[in-house]
Amino acid sequence: MNVHRAQEILAAHEKIEVDLNGLAVWIDSVDSGKGLVKVHAEGNPADARVVPAKELEEVH
């Protein structure tokens, strides 16, 4: 996914499913300058990490 799409998902009012290597995650913040996204595992806010936006995949 690109950084712009990650920002759209973060701002969306509805839930948009996103995966990181098969793990369902929530987007917490987006650093568009660096192309990085802070995410946490769905159901486990303590499992947070910062990853490149390109590693995220929108689930359709």
UniProtKB/TrEMBL annotation:
Q: Which InterPro entries match?
A: SASP_SspH (IPR012610)
Q: Where in the cell is it found?
A: Spore core
Protein name, per record: Spore protein
Query: Where primarily located?
Result: other
The UniProt entry's sequence similarity note says:
Belongs to the SspH family.
Q: Which UniProt keywords apply?
A: Sporulation
Q: Name one GO biological process term.
A: asexual sporulation
Give the CC-aspect GO terms: endospore-forming forespore
Name one matching Pfam family. SspH
